[in-house]
Structures are given as C-alpha cells and as structure tokens.
Amino acid sequence: MSKAFTKESDNGDEDDEAGGLPPLPPGGKNYITPEGYERLRAELLSLMDVERPKVVEAVHWAAKNGDRSENGDYLYGKKRLREIDRRIRFLTKRLEIAEVTDPSVHHGSDQVFFGATVTYADESGEEHTVTILGIDEAESAQRQVSWIAPISRTLLKARVGDALKLVTPGGTQEIEVVEVVYPAPASR
Questions:
Q1: What is the CATH number of domain 30-100?
Q2: Could you tell me the end-to-end alpha-carbon distance of the chain, in angstroms, rounded to an integer?
C-alpha cells in the first residue's frame, strides 16, 4: 500500500494534541487574558507569514534535487510543514473560540477570579503562589495554572482568609487563602 494513504496518527483529533494542551472541558469556555490572546495570535501570524514560507521554500528546493525517498532535506521539510500546519489549525481553532477576559477589572478585590495571583498556605504553613490563567497560556514553570486545574477550581470565588479543602491524589488537604492580587488596569 502506498504511504500516501496511511494515517500519521491513531489519534482522530490531531489538532488538540498539536498544542500539547488538555482539551477544553465539555461546555467550557476558552478563557484567556488579553496578553495571552496576543501571544497566541503573534505565534499564529509568525507561523503563517515567516516560518511556513521558509519551510515551503526549502522543500521546493529539496524537491528539485532528485530522488525524494532518500532526500533528508525534503523528508524533514515535509514533516516540519505538517507540524506547522497542525499548529496553525490548532491556534486558529483556539483563537476563534477564545473568550478574552481582562483580570484587571478585579484590581483591588480580595476574591479569587480568573487572572488572580493567589498566595495560599498549606497545612504545614508553607505558602505557595499561583496565577490562574487560560489553558492555552498557563506555564507551570512560571507558577501559572489553568482555570480548570484542581487548585484553581478550589480557589475560585474564595476570599482572603477562607479555609478550603483541596482534594489531591494524596488525599484532602486544608489550605487558606493569604493574598489575592490582580494586575493594575492599563492606563489610557
């Protein structure tokens, strides 16, 4: 059978996998901050206007070099082109359904909403700080968590001083909200 008629992946929905992100919860909205939306939009435009044309040019050049079955530049270029196209489809779909939510409207509030940076203390008194963002923009290495994460679900709508029950794989843990901070509104 020709390789042209084989599936690349057994996963039926490659586009959601392309971003390496969890799917949206059923009926859930794709909340995102204005900054996160602009970052994803900039990535999409860069892929379409800069990176994809470069790869197309490289593939075109490599295709002129003869036997494509053993042409590494051609094979790698085609693979990279598929990856870029998959990411473009993913970003396009996510941006279409994005619900941009500006957390600065809650500036000065002590209640936890989307976009809050929350400091909480665990049972041992150790403090942890997380920022609640959209699933497409949260980076755990920067202490950012998506709004669908268990810690976020526990913290949302709580206020400073509230004691909460956080359910973890290791059991239930009591936490207390210590501080809630929002970005300042942009001056106009």
A1: 1.10.287.180
A2: 62
Looking at residue 111, the DSSP 8-state letter turns out to be B
Which of 131, 81, 127 shows the shortest CA–CA distance to 103? 131
Least confident of 3-17, 102-116, 136-150: 3-17
**Domain 104-181 class?**
alpha beta
CA distance 109 to 159: 9
Helix (H, G, I), strand (E, B) or coil at 168: strand
pTM of the predicted structure, to 2 decimals: 0.77
Q: Is 136 left (phi over 0), alpha (psi -120 to 50) or beta?
A: alpha
**pLDDT tops 80 at residue 75:** yes
CA dist., res. 21 & res. 89, Å (int): 14
Rounded CA-CA distance 177/120 in Å is 4
